[in-house]
Every structure is written in structure tokens, then in C-alpha cells.
């Protein structure tokens, strides 16, 4: 278990930061905090030096981008109880022909099938009524919530990530966390934590209401 190289961009000067810390492209840039403002949910994937902006208007987190075969694992924790789901994610950069210089995803988190200019253009002009950045080769419904129900080549077991999540909960003194993981495309033995969220949505998970109730009673010192 590891964490992708990441830095907090507080002075807004991305070019200077990437130079000082020798971060190589591609990189991912996202707001440090998400709020109700749609711009706080926008994520930039920068693949070319020409795409590096001179600055950002808010504090940003800069992470090295790891190819992960377009799959992200989202863990939802209530103490040591872990719910895990797979979702479609961003594509690989390795072997991508004629890649775009920059790609931005918004709060809808619709991902392209490839970073190639042709794939992004096709997605933009596809006429099936889906979001312009919807993956054209995944054949998803425009209302699909992007959960992957089929098995993928590399699977992540709950037991393999539970110790890591419990340690993070202890460090933060928080019992309700959402933690995102990816599996390295070039080395499936490498698993990276790429994001941590406080009090995520637990919608759709069986038994979560009971666990929440037990946690509240525990925190209040009320016996069952």
C-alpha cells in the first residue's frame, strides 16, 4: 500500500512547484477542499508542458498520475466496517497516440475512454445523448452511476485495505471515511491511495443505517 506523490499548492504557482519538486508529467491537479461550488469539484489532468497554467485561483493538491486501467476502488468505512465498490475512472496515458495536452473532469466525473485527441473528439461529438465526456466505448447509459458490476482483471480485496483505513481513521480521529484506491497498471502488486474524504455518502449499502446507529450509541455512551 502506498500513496501517490502529492504536494499542496498554496502559492498558486504550479510551474515553480513542479520544477522545484521534479514532478514529471502527467500530473493531476484538484482543489484541496470540495464545497458546493462546482469549480471545487473540477480535476485537471495535465499531460503536456504547454498545458501548465501559470496559477490557480484556489489552493490545489498536485499528484503524480498513475495509470490504473480505468478503474478506481471507492471504500466507504464506518469504523472497521468497509463497503467497497468499483467505478470507471480515467484511462491510461502509456501508449496513448496523439494525447490531448489537458483534460478536465467536472463534478459528474464522466471519464473519456482515452486521452487521445481522436477519442476525446469522438466523445464530444457522439450523438447518443450522453455527456460530452462520456466514454464512447463503455456503452454506458447516460444516467448510469458508473459502478462496474463485472469483474476486472485486477481485483482489490476489502481485507487488504482494512488495516490501512483503520490506521487513517486513528490518525484523523474520524470514524466515517471515504478512501479511494487504484491498482498500478504496470504492477498489480502496487496499490495506491489517491483520495480521502470525510463523511462520504453511504447511499445504497445494505446495513449501513444499523452501523450508523451503533456508532452514534457508542459515541454517546449508550448501551444497546
From TrEMBL:
Keywords: ATP-binding, Kinase, Magnesium, Metal-binding, Nucleotide-binding, Transferase. GO terms for molecular function: ATP binding; inositol-1,3,4-trisphosphate 5-kinase activity; inositol-1,3,4-trisphosphate 6-kinase activity; inositol-3,4,5,6-tetrakisphosphate 1-kinase activity; magnesium ion binding. GO terms for cellular component: cytoplasm. GO terms for biological process: inositol trisphosphate metabolic process. InterPro entries: Inositol_tetrakis-P_1-kinase, InsP(3)kin_ATP-grasp. Residues 12-208 form the Inositol 1,3,4-trisphosphate 5/6-kinase ATP-grasp domain. It is an enzyme of class 2 (transferase). Its cofactor is Mg(2+). Its EC number is 2.7.1.159. It comes from the Eukaryota. Belongs to the ITPK1 family. This is inositol-1,3,4-trisphosphate 5/6-kinase. It comes from Blastocystis sp. subtype 1 (strain ATCC 50177 / NandII).
Amino acid at each position: 500500500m502506498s500513496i501517490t506523490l502529492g504536494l499542496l499548492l498554496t502559492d498558486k504557482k504550479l510551474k515553480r512547484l513542479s520544477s522545484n519538486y521534479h514532478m514529471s508529467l502527467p500530473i493531476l491537479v484538484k482543489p484541496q477542499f470540495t464545497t458546493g461550488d462546482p469549480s471545487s469539484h473540477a480535476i485537471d489532468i495535465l499531460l503536456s508542458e504547454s498545458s501548465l497554467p501559470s496559477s490557480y485561483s484556489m489552493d490545489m493538491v498536485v499528484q503524480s498520475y498513475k495509470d490504473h486501467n480505468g478503474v478506481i476502488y471507492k471504500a466507504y468505512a464506518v469504523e472497521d466496517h468497509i463497503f467497497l465498490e468499483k467505478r470507471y475512472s480515467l484511462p491510461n496515458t502509456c501508449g496513448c497516440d496523439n494525447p490531448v495536452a489537458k483534460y478536465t473532469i467536472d463534478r459528474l466525473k464522466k471519464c473519456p475512454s482515452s486521452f487521445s485527441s481522436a477519442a476525446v473528439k469522438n466523445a464530444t461529438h457522439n450523438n447518443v445523448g450522453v455527456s460530452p465526456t462520456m466514454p464512447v466505448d463503455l456503452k454506458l447509459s447516460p444516467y448510469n452511476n458508473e459502478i462496474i458490476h463485472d469483474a476486472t482483471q485486477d481485483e482489490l480485496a476489502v481485507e487488504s485495505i482494512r488495516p490501512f483505513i483503520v490506521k487513517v481513521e486513528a490518525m484523523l480521529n474520524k470514524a466515517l471515511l471515504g478512501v479511494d484506491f487504484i491498482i498500478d497498471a504496470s504492477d498489480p502488486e502496487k496499490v495506491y491511495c489517491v483520495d480521502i474524504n470525510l463523511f462520504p455518502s453511504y447511499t445504497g449499502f445494505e446495513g449501513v443505517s444499523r452501523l450508523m446507529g451503533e456508532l452514534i450509541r457508542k459515541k454517546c455512551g449508550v448501551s444497546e
